[in-house]
Amino acid sequence: MEKEKCVLCGDETPYYPTVHIDYRYGYVEGAGQMCSRCYTKGTERRHITIPADMVYNNPNDADLGAEIRKIYNQML
Fold first, then answer.
1. Would you state the pLDDT for residue 30?
2. Which residue in 30, 35, 46, 61 is deepest, having the highest Cβ count within 10 Å?
3. Are residues 34 and 9 part of one domain?
């Protein structure tokens, strides 16, 4: 059985999918398993998550970019 991959960097984590999330370090509900390096970076992460329907509902790239920038600025 293959171990889980970090949802941010793709590195292998020490956990198999059968290990309950209560017994893992670096698992974020709604996001998934992170390696210890990515998890400990905390707020230093330079990634944001946007809903997939935002991409589908904004066929204009300029409008999509404006929406993403708005989300990013709200996080600061």
1. 86
2. 35
3. yes
Query: In this structure, which amino acid lies at residue 62?
Result: A
* Angstrom distance (rounded) from CA 41 to CA 72: 18
Residue 42 has pLDDT above 80, yes or no: no
- Concatenated DSSP letters for 14-75? S--TTS-GGG-SSEETTTEE--HHHHHTGGG-------HHHHHT--SHHHHHHHHHHHHHHH
Banded pLDDT at 20 (limits 50, 70, 90): very high
One domain, residues 61 and 40:
no
* Residue 22 confidence (pLDDT) above 70: yes
Same domain for 25 and 55, yes or no, is no
* DSSP-assigned beta bridge partners for residue 5: 12
Is the same domain home to 3 and 16? Answer: yes
Q: Are residues 56 and 26 in the same domain?
A: no
